[in-house]
Amino acid sequence: MKKLLLASAATMLATAATAEEVKIGVLLGFTGPIESMAVAMGAGAELAIKEVSDGGQFMNGSTVVSVRGDSTCIDAAAATAVAERLITSDKVAGIVGAACSGVTGAVLANVARPNGMVMISPSATSPSLTAAEDDGLFFRTVPSDARQGQIMADILLGNGVKETAVTYTNNDYGKGLAESYQSAFEAGGGTVTISAAHEDDKGDYSAEVGALASAGGEVLVVAGYADRGGAGIVRGSLDAGAFDTFHFPDGMVSGSLEEKFGDSIDGSTGQLPGNDSPGAERFAEVVGDAFDPTAIFSGESYDAAALLLMAMQAAGSTDPKVYVSKIMEIANAPGEPIYPGELGKAMQILADGGDVDYVGATVVEFLENGDSAGSYREVKIEGGKFETVGYR
Running DSSP on this structure, what letter comes out for residue 372? Predict the structure, then answer.
């Protein structure tokens, strides 16, 4: 009995010696053009972090905490400064983020690569990030806008729309999406009457709306932000009687748009990353009433945090240079399928030397370049609310 007690004490001491507090950076646009979306995104990432920490099987009983950073979504200097703080001062082991494409590229080039830090973005969608120099450190659980542009074109052409005007926010996200959409729409036989940039946070968009109205089109495609210039364009269009039917990409699909315009934009369409898989159902169960599980990028944020932590467990290390090689293995087959709410199960399998295939909330599957294959939820405004009409 004495020997058993001594052995148990030695085991406990060894575990305590190796257990630690692991920090995960959550670098999202908590202020700026997607601040209404960032609420559920941050909650999604932190839900996965809490699930792993509470499970007690991660890295010999190590706890996991989140450290938030505000990327602002529009200020690259601010975003890089915050990312630098997360890495050098807070000592995070990985970053969920950044949120918007422009600041994500800046953080990747100026902070993550020089410091060898892994980033998994749940919402940076610009096609330019696919070819960015990343030393294999950058992944995203959201599909590229190269795919979203094709999905947009398919929806509109399928609805019998032949001509659209396009306005896009003047940044990497807006430009990339507008170009991708126009190419796909015209290839399908449609006509883009005008594709014009708009700046965010202007008090008056009458000049922009006038140019769009002069060019004409059955539908106005608004590749912008629901909390910024995109909403201004919609307001100006409605007030001037220029357009009353719109198509909204992911940056516009927000509860704040419903609150601003209600049924005045009924009949408008859109899409955002989403699926009707068992993983999405499991995610809704895990979330409960904590937040809206269908909120844009919330599932992608949960998956990004989960992937970081599972890769660390698989590698037996929180060093990004070590665990980065495990991310692709964790995300793709073969292995035991893992869904939301099963992160503790995944940690045990990995600790025992087994393999997992993380399906997650968003049917995670990484392409060779670290992009997500992805799927989309098609929506339509009915009674002033975004209603799901299908998946693509």
Answer: B
Instruction: Select 2-144+277-358's CATH number: 1.20.1250.20, 3.10.20.310, 3.30.750.24, 3.40.50.2300.
Output: 3.40.50.2300
Distances (CA, A) of 2 to 8, 9, 12: 10, 11, 15
Could you report the per-residue pLDDT of 103-158, keeping only the tens digit for each? Answer: 999 999 999 999 999 999 999 999 999 999 999 999 999 999 999 999 999 999 99
- Contact criterion met (CB below 8 Å) for 141 and 172: no
The number of beta carbons lying within 10 Å of the beta carbon of residue 241 is 9
**Domains of the chain by residue range:** 2-144+277-358, 145-273+376-391
pTM across the whole model:
0.90
Assigned CATH for 145-273+376-391: 3.40.50.2300
Nearest to 177 by CA among 244, 297, 272, 96: 272
User: Which residue is listed with tokens 């999604």?
Assistant: 44
DSSP label at 250? G
Number of H helices, E strands in the chain: 14, 14
Q: Is 243 in contact with 212 (CB distance < 8 Å)?
A: yes
